[in-house]
Amino acid sequence: MVAALAAGRHILLEGPPGTGKSTLLRAVADELGIGFEFVEGNAELTPARLVGHFDPARVMTDGYAPDVFVDGPLVSALHDGSLLYVEEINRIPEETLNVLITVMSEAELHVPRLGRVVASPGFRLVAAMNPFDAVGTARISSAVYDRTCRLLVDYQSAQEEGAIVERAVTKVEVAEVDEAWREKLVELVRRTRTHPEVRIGSSVRGAIDATAVAASLSELRGLPVSNPSVGLDATMIALSGRIRLREGSSRTAEEIVTELWAEVFGRRADGEGQGKAGAPDGATNSPS
Q1: What phi and psi values does residue 185 have, to the nearest 5 degrees?
Q2: Average pLDDT, whole number, for the chain?
Q3: On the chain, which terminus has fewer CB atoms closer than 10 Å, C or N?
Q4: Nearest-angstrom CA–CA distance, 38 and 57
Q5: Is 12 helix (H, G, I), strand (E, B) or coil?
Q6: Residue (of 40, 30, 111) closest to 73 by Cα position
Q7: Which residues touch 227 (CB under 8 Å, ≥6 apart)?
């Protein structure tokens, strides 16, 4: 990525959510001292929001003068010679994508009533995208691939994910969690990505949240994190909304999480972890 940026190339970062695409770019840009404009890709990102617009109130008095134009992130990046970071590029409308393709090809942009905006030295587009099968995504035109250097970003190793969880949880200063327990939790989260009934598993963010919630819940209930009524409840609340089941599956996310918990941590003495999952303990016991 550093080499591609130094060579003045446009870059496409492709990988599942939570694999560190944004973190990677921010770290590289910060290290190299490169500024960048951030754009969140979604269906509402119109060409006008990306490029900019004339201030309607000032147009009434001053007309379509250059200083009446309000720069959007694309024009700002072109003027400053900085990076334009478009997150989830495969969620933006086709007409907006066409604007980016033109800029990548010509290194300039023509804006009606404003004129030609030429890219200053250093301008590059860095786009990130989730896999096509993610909900709300569309296939990217080959014209984008032909104009970018593609870097595939995949999930980290188990050891690296464990280190990420440890660092992230330390920052929020929760009670200490046993390293062996944390490693098992990371393993559980990783298994959500390969479970036959799960279409999209959890990223390392699920392990971070489950660890933080488990430490907090441990203090509230006065029980160790290793107690299933603490660990399973914390894992349930952190993962049940993050995994997406395959169409046609007759099971719930809660059942899948309970099954994986039983595989990694062992079945609960009271029989939970078998069959359909009930409500987490915190939903039926004390307010804690």
Answers
A1: -65, -40
A2: 86
A3: C
A4: 27
A5: strand
A6: 40
A7: 218, 221
* Cα–Cα distance, 6 to 144 (Å, whole number): 20
Q: Which two tokens stand for residue 51?
A: 């490029």
Residue with tokens 């990217």: 140
State the average pLDDT over residues 126-152: 80
C-alpha count within 13 angstroms, C-beta hemisphere, residue 138:
14
Q: Determine the 3-state secondary structure of 74 from DSSP.
A: helix
* Number of residues that make up the chain: 288
CB–CB of 140/96 below 8 Å? no
* 146/4 Cα distance (integer angstroms): 15
C-alpha to C-alpha distance for 49 and 74, rounded to whole angstroms: 9
Instruction: Give the residue among 226, 271, 278, 287 at the shortest CA–CA distance from 257.
Output: 278
Q: Are strands 149-152 and 11-14 parallel, antiparallel or unpaired?
A: parallel
Write out the two tokens for 204: 């390392």
Tell me the per-residue pLDDT of 152-161, one tens digit each, with 9 for 90 and over: 999 999 999 9
Q: What is the pLDDT of residues 211-267, one digit of tens each?
A: 999 999 998 999 998 898 899 999 999 999 999 999 888 999 999 999 999 999 986
Using CA atoms, how far apart are residues 11 and 145, in angstroms rounded to an integer? 9
Question: pTM of the prediction?
Answer: 0.77
Determine the angle formed by the axes of helices 253-265 and 228-239, rounding to 10 degrees: 140
**Which tens digits make up the pLDDT trace of 36-89?**
899 998 889 999 999 999 988 888 888 888 888 999 999 999 999 999 999 999
Q: Look at phi and psi of residue 276 and say left if phi exceeds 0, alpha if psi is from -120 to 50, else beta.
A: beta
